Amino acid sequence: MLIKIAKPSDLRESDVTPESVYLSRRRFMGGLAGLGAGLALSGTAKASADYSDVPDGDAPAWLQGKIDSSRRRAVVPADPETDAIAPFRDASGYNNFYEFGSSKSDPARHADRLETQPWSVVIDGEVNNGGRFNLEDFASPSRFEERIYRLRCVEAWSMVIPWLGISLADVIQRAEPTSKAKYVRFETLVDPEQMPAQDSAFSLIDWPYVEGLRLDEAMHPLTLLALGMYGRELPNQNGAPLRLVVPWKYGFKSIKSIVRISLVEEQPVNSWQRIAPDEYGFYANVNPEVDHPRWSQATERRLPNSLFNPNTLDTRMFNGYADEVAELYAGMDLRKHF
Ligand code: MTE
């Protein structure tokens, strides 16, 4: 987050699509069908990926059952060249998870210390039906779906990742928000025994890692609570056992290893905004026209890449999901509300 990455380039237009794809536990086959209600998407899907490098997970039986029987619905990037699904080893080996250190390889190296079973999530604040729920009770009433999304980090790298999860809107509806609920605030676990960098004297973050969404953003059908990726449960370094995925926002909004979801009246202050309010805002919508003060956001490095193939793409407004989400921000000055 506090580093500079250079990149120039060009790319062509692509779009999310109305089709879903058949995604087996090991192989993505590319069959087409209709997308879930509520999403108005356009385009045509063509995508393929090989999951042969995905190691077996260790999901509890209830979650494995949900994963196996998920409806395999996916919002699929349209361009199989520029939007190829990242190999699992990249998605699980190049991470930001500052609770385990600040280098990209730290999370994969240290996150096995995180104990994800059992896990509970608190829902509180402006709700009539809150409480502490074990993960199974929290997630299993919701329909599991597979979603292939672009993830665009504020540091100007990106990947395409097939997530597995539940709609945040469904969880919020069940909690029965009161009329005072205007925002949703999320918190990551705090436990330096399991998350060693939380004890580091060099850490910039005032733990817990906190994120927030406006209620209508949280209720948007693209907003996912992920419990898996690549047809298996989440690896710890990717935010097991429960993380947020908001595909039109910079990756730092997608908070990992969530233990608390609070419906609140006031706009939360998220962790990166607290550290550097001139650099990281509350909205953090992907926007190629609003540069980070220390680097351009016009392009991105699509992973995997190499010295010989930098794979630099033009960044698209709302990460290419403008048709679905632009109306949430109608009339807002996006330079001010960055
Ligand atoms: N959540 C927590 N709790 N701690 C973090 O450091 N990093 C964020 C986000 N969620 C982070 C987090 C950032 S900066 C990014 S880009 C994404 O996680 C990266 O997700 P990935 O490692 O699964 O690609």
UniProtKB/TrEMBL annotation:
Q: Which GO terms describe its molecular function?
A: oxidoreductase activity
What InterPro entries does the database record attribute to this sequence?
MsrP (IPR022867), OxRdtase_Mopterin-bd_dom (IPR000572), OxRdtase_Mopterin-bd_sf (IPR036374), TAT_signal (IPR006311)
State its cofactor.
Mo-molybdopterin
* Ranges where the Oxidoreductase molybdopterin-binding domain occurs: 114-272
This entry's comment on the bound cofactor is: Binds 1 Mo-molybdopterin (Mo-MPT) cofactor per subunit.
Q: Superkingdom of this entry's organism?
A: Bacteria
Q: What is its EC number?
A: 1.8.5.-
What the entry says about post-translational processing?
Predicted to be exported by the Tat system. The position of the signal peptide cleavage has not been experimentally proven.
By its UniProt entry, which HAMAP family does this protein fall under?
A: MsrP
Summarize subunit and interaction data from the UniProt record for this chain.
Heterodimer of a catalytic subunit (MsrP) and a heme-binding subunit (MsrQ).
Which family, according to the similarity comment? Belongs to the MsrP family.
- Name assigned to this protein: Protein-methionine-sulfoxide reductase catalytic subunit MsrP
Q: Which gene encodes it?
A: msrP
